[in-house]
Every structure is written in structure tokens, then in C-alpha cells.
């Protein structure tokens, strides 16, 4: 991953009633800005103000305020976020830096509760954290759409290849037909000449000859009509056969689809609603716990003078005595409880705060589990909707095909009846014509000559044959022209298929690429940071991509997972693999931060937002904090980090410091 180039920027942040802040303004330049101070001195609140102005979703309104805002001036642009209390909720408005804060919330705002950072601490699904901003469902839908289009193009190209192979035989067939047509026309002309000669030699039997000619003409019309009916019958049978095959395929597809009565979408919707309400309830508990912990920390450090004044004893003799001294006795391990006024062990309050933090962590894990269940149910709901749509499509097409089959069967019956009717009429006409011809022959001296009826029969047969040949020639010519026209699109189709292959390759490898780059980035930076921080008993912390089978809705799919490995060495130089739960708090925090940095670099968050925020680094010693902060500096324009005074002292004096908020 490339290190971000350093470009000088200036910024100013104004905040009012954010977190525990009444009102403040700070100015900073690009690079490292250290928020130095004890706990409960609004350092985290200031980070919340930054997040609010940048568009993050974690800012909170001061408990005793109805409205608040955060305003960030950056590169001659001003970005704002307002917060307003409405009943039991806080409504946000304004025009912050980011329209969509997801990437920044996941990988740039690396506070203690950050999901990427916590994923290592709580042993969550690391792959899910990395892929959370990626709409995998949309990718799968696009892959499915492009695959269908590619298959259609491939089928069309296969058809064109087949047609291309057929072209020489069709051209030969056209040549043969043209020759046969020419021969038939010559033969027909000869027969017509014989008919004219026979008619010219007719004598006084003109009246009978006219009647015979009329019968022969009517016979020709009936035979022509019969030929048309036979052609229509052949066409209808072919169409009917194709429709019946399609109906069989549709019925088979319908049989393979899950039964609709097994797809209870309302039940899934209800479960999603229930889990979402449960998640929202947990969010409320988490928010309350955060406020309680923050309040008690501030009280423990003595940062609420107004409240302390209310709790002060009425009989305090010296009003000059500092309020803090009334509540906190530095020489003893007791404090005055701000709920009952009695003296209690400081350690007891600290233990209570620790338990509250642990409970908050538990609730955060519960919420993450609920979100995972909700996402799984949403996937199941999408499958239900897709199955219902397939049912509707198949049912509609099956109804349409069934109706068309019935119509064509009726048409086939009508054509069959018409064929039989014409055949009967032709038989009758041939009988009548034969009788008329026999009468004419009685008056004819030359019995060796071919009769006029026979000549007309031959002429009819030749005309039928000629008509069929001409229709065959027309069909063959149309086929050749269709092939030649279709082949004109072959190059364009091949180009489009190549484009789709490239698009599919990119889509199919996008998730793989993100996973691979995330793992490579984490492993690379983890190796570098471990070397910089000099953890002597850790040889390596690295992520391995492994395959596993997971359930998505009703089906099982193959998916990759991220396995975190810890390799340690003993005093004698041998190595062994350790488990995550054996990492020290310091090692866990560093691992979580580097995992967040990997996501930051893989998703190129530095292109979206020029800030990275850090806090809660107390688990590391001062020198390691300084080395880690300096390591992170090279990847962002602004790095704002909240530190205790003794930890801030380990950083170079050239870095900006904010000590009063």
C-alpha cells in the first residue's frame, strides 16, 4: 500500500454541546495533533465533534442541552452538523464533509468502540468487517445478469457458427432449386402448348369443351387451396410440437421450485422487525451505559464543579477549600460518593465503572450478533422474493403457452376438416371432368392423343410442383439473407462477449482482491509495527485466508474466512502458535489498530476523508504509543489522537497539542 504524500492543510473546528463540551474552538495543521489531558477532560467529546462535522454517526448531544453543533473549516470550505433533541431522540441535520460515513466509521475513526478495532479484541469475523462496505448482494446480482447476457451471446454465436457451416449447402440448395424451377417451367410451357393445340383442334363440341374447361379451372383452384391447407397444417404441427416441449420444460421448472406455502415472508419480516427493535433497545442501553461511564469518570476526576457544589456539606467551615479536596482525598484511597455523600473506597467505584464497561462490551457484542442475524434474514427474504418472482414468471408463461396450444389445436382441427373437405371436392370434380372428357372423346377420331383432362392434370401437377419449388427457393433465399445479415453482427457480439468476460472477471475477483489486499496489508504493517514496537516474545501476528462452508439463508455456500495466527518463541529459540486470548491487552490493541489501518488502506479511505482519529491507547507504554502514532501519521493528512499527559510527553514537541477543551 502506498504511503500518503504529505500536503499542508489547515483546519478549524468549532463545537457546542457535543458530548461533554459546552463550547470550544481549536485550530490545527495537517500532521499529528495531540489532545493531551487526563480522563474525563472531554478529549473523546472533541473527537466526537470531529466525527460529527466529518459526517460520522457516533456524535452525542450534551445531556443538559437541547441543541448542539460541530463546524469544520477545511480548505476554504465549511462543513456543519447540527444535533437537536426531539423527545427521546436526537435529530441530526446540516451538510457534513461526508454524505456516506460508513468507510470512515469503520476504518478512519479508530476510537475504542470502533468495529474494526474491536473485531480483534472480541474475536469477531474479521472478513465480515473488511467486506462490510461492499454490497456483495449487488455484485452477485450483477454477476448473474452479466452471466445470462454472456450465455445468450454465446448461444447466438454458436448458432451463427452453425449457420455459417450451413451457408455453403444452402447456397448449393438455392442453385439446385433454381435449376429445377427452370426445368419445371420449360415442362409446363410444353404442356400448356399441348393444351392450346388440343383446344384448337376441338370441333363442334364447343359447349362441352367449355364446360370441361370450367371444371378443370375449378379443379385447379381446389388443388391450389388444398396445397395451401397442407402447408398450413405442417406449419401448425411444427409450432404445436415446439409449444408442447416448452410446456414440458416449464412444468419441470415449476416442479423444481420450492412450494410457495413453504415461503413465509411475513414470518421473516416479523423476525427482522423483532430483531431490529431488540437491536435498537440495545443501542439505547449502550448509549445510557456510555453516558453513565462518562459521567462517573468525570465525577471521579472532579470535573463537575456545579454538581459537587450541590453535594458539598452545609457545615464546611472554609469556603476557600477546593471542591475537589472535598470529594477526592489524594492522600487516601476514599472519595465522597456523589449519590449518597458517604466516604467510599475509590477502588470500589473504579471496579463498578469497569463492570459497566464490561457490560457495555457485552451489549456491543449482542448488537453485533443481532445485526448478523438480521443480515442473514434479509438474505433469506431476498431468496423468498426471487423464488416468488420465478413462480409468477413460470406461471404466467405456462398459462400463455397452454392457451396458445389450445388455440393451435383448434386451428389444427379446423385445417384437418378443411383438408378433408377439399379432398372430397377434388374427387367429385375429377369424376365430373372425366365424364365430360369421355363425352368429348366419343366425337374425337384420334384416340392416341393425350386427352385434354390428362394434359390439364399434368399442368396442375407441374404448377403445384413449381409453386412448391418457388416457395422452397424463397425460404432458402431468406435463410441465406438472414444468415448473412446475422453474420454482420458477429464481430460486435464477440466484442461484447469479451467485454462481459472482463466485467465478470473484475466482479468475481473484486471480493477476492479486497480480501487478498486486506490480508497482505495487515500482514505487512503488522510485521513492520511489531519490529518498531519491539515486542520481544512475539515472532509474528498474521492473517491467513482459509475456505469454509457457511449458510446463507436456506443454502450453503463456500466462502473464505480470516484466521488470525500468533507465533511466539521460547527462551531456547523454539516457536509455537498461541491463541488470541493469550495476547496481552497492549498486543490486542495494537493488532486491532493495524487491522483498522488495513481496511483504511484497502478501501482507500484516505481518498474519502483526510482525517484519522485515535484514542484509548493507555494499554501501550508511552514509547510504543509514540512509535505507533508516528507510524500512522504517514497514511493520513490529519491524525488526531487523544493521550494522557505522560503518554503525550513521549511524542516529539513539534507536534501540535491541545490541552484546553
Automatic annotation (TrEMBL):
The lineage of its organism: Archaea, Methanobacteriati, Methanobacteriota, Stenosarchaea group, Halobacteria. It comes from the Archaea. Residues 136-253, 353-524 form a coiled coil. GO terms for molecular function: ATP hydrolysis activity. GO terms for biological process: double-strand break repair. Keywords: Coiled coil. It comes from Natrialba taiwanensis DSM 12281. This is Kinetochore-Ndc80 complex subunit Spc25. It holds the Pfam family AAA_23. Residues 12-225 form the Rad50/SbcC-type AAA domain. SUPFAM superfamilies: P-loop containing nucleoside triphosphate hydrolases.
Amino acid at each position: 500500500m502506498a504511503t500518503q504524500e504529505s500536503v499542508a492543510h489547515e483546519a478549524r473546528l468549532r463545537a457546542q454541546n457535543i458530548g461533554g463540551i459546552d463550547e470550544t474552538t481549536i485550530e490545527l495543521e495537517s500532521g499529528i495533533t495531540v489532545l493531551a489531558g487526563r480522563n474525563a477532560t472531554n478529549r473523546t467529546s472533541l473527537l466526537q465533534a470531529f466525527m460529527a462535522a466529518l459526517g460520522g454517526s457516533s456524535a452525542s448531544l450534551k445531556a443538559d442541552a437541547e441543541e448542539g453543533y460541530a463546524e469544520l473549516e477545511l480548505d476554504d470550505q465549511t462543513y456543519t452538523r447540527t444535533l437537536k433533541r426531539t423527545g427521546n431522540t436526537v435529530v441530526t441535520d446540516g451538510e457534513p464533509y461526508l454524505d456516506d460515513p460508513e468507510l470512515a466509521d469503520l476504518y478512519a475513526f479508530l476510537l475504542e468502540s470502533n468495529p474494526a478495532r474491536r473485531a480483534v479484541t472480541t474475536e469477531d469475523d474479521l472478513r465480515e468487517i473488511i467486506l462490510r462496505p461492499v454490497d456483495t448482494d449487488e455484485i452477485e446480482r450483477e454477476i448473474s445478469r452479466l452471466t445470462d447476457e454472456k450465455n445468450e451471446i454465446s448461444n447466438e454465436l454458436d448458432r451463427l457458427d452453425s449457420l455459417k457451416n450451413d451457408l455453403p449447402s444452402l447456397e448449393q440448395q438455392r442453385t439446385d432449386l433454381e435449376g429445377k424451377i427452370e426445368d419445371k417451367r420449360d415442362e409446363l410451357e410444353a404442356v400448356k402448348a399441348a393444351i392450346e393445340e388440343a383446344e384448337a383442334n376441338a370441333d363442334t363440341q364447343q359447349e362441352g369443351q367449355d364446360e370441361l374447361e370450367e371444371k378443370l379451372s375449378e379443379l385447379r383452384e381446389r388443388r391450389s387451396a388444398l396445397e395451401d391447407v397442407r402447408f398450413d397444417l405442417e406449419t401448425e404441427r411444427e409450432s404445436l410440437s415446439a409449444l408442447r416441449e416448452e410446456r414440458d420444460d416449464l412444468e419441470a421448472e415449476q416442479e423444481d421450485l420450492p412450494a410457495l406455502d413453504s415461503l413465509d415472508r411475513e414470518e421473516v419480516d416479523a423476525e427482522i422487525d423483532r430483531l431490529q427493535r431488540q437491536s435498537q433497545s440495545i443501542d439505547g442501553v449502550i448509549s445510557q451505559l456510555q453516558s453513565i461511564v462518562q459521567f462517573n469518570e468525570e465525577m471521579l476526576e472532579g470535573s463537575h464543579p456545579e454538581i459537587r457544589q450541590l453535594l458539598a456539606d452545609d457545615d464546611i467551615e472554609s469556603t476557600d477549600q477546593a471542591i475537589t479536596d472535598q470529594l477526592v482525598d489524594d492522600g487516601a484511597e476514599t472519595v465522597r460518593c456523589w449519590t449518597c455523600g458517604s466516604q467510599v473506597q475509590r477502588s470500589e467505584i473504579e471496579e463498578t465503572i469497569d463492570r459497566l464497561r464490561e457490560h457495555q462490551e457485552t451489549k456491543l457484542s449482542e448488537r453485533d450478533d443481532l445485526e448478523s442475524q438480521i443480515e442473514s434474514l434479509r438474505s433469506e427474504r431476498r431468496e423468498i422474493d426471487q423464488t416468488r418472482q420465478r413462480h409468477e414468471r413460470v406461471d404466467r408463461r405456462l398459462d400463455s403457452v397452454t392457451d396458445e396450444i389450445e388455440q393451435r389445436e383448434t386451428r389444427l382441427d379446423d385445417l384437418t376438416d378443411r383438408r378433408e373437405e377439399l379432398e372430397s371436392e377434388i374427387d367429385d370434380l375429377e369424376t365430373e371432368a372425366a365424364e365430360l372428357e369421355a363425352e368429348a372423346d366419343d366425337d374425337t377420331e384420334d384416340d392416341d392423343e393425350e386427352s385434354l383432362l390428362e394434359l390439364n392434370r399434368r399442368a396442375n401437377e407441374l404448377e403445384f410442383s413449381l409453386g412448391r419449388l418457388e416457395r422452397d427457393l424463397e425460404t432458402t433465399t431468406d435463410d441465406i439473407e438472414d444468415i448473412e445479415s446475422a453474420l454482420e453482427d458477429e464481430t460486435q457480439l464477440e466484442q461484447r462477449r469479451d467485454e462481459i468476460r472482463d466485467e465478470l472477471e473484475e466482479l468475481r475477483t473484486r471480493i477476492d482482491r479486497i480480501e487478498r489486499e486486506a490480508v497482505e496489508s495487515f500482514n505487512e504493517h503488522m510485521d513492520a509495527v511489531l519490529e518498531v514496537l519491539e515486542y520481544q516474545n512475539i515472532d509474528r501476528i498474521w492473517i491467513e485466508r482459509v475456505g469454509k462452508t457457511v449458510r446463507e439463508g436456506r443454502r450453503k455456500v463456500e466462502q473464505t474466512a480470516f484466521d488470525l495466527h500468533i507465533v511466539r518463541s521460547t527462551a531456547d529459540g523454539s516457536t509455537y502458535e498461541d491463541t488470541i486470548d493469550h495476547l496481552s491487552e497492549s498486543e490486542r490493541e495494537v493488532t486491532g489498530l493495524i487491522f483498522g489501518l488495513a481496511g483504511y488502506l484497502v478501501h482507500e479511505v484516505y481518498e474519502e476523508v483526510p482525517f484519522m482519529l485515535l484514542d484509548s491507547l493507555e494499554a501501550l507504554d508511552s514509547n510504543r504509543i509514540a512509535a505507533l502514532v508516528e507510524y500512522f501519521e504517514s497514511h493520513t493528512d490529519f491524525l488526531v489522537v487523544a493521550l494522557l499527559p505522560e503518554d503525550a510527553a513521549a511524542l516529539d514537541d513539534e507536534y501540535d497539542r491541545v490541552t484546553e477543551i
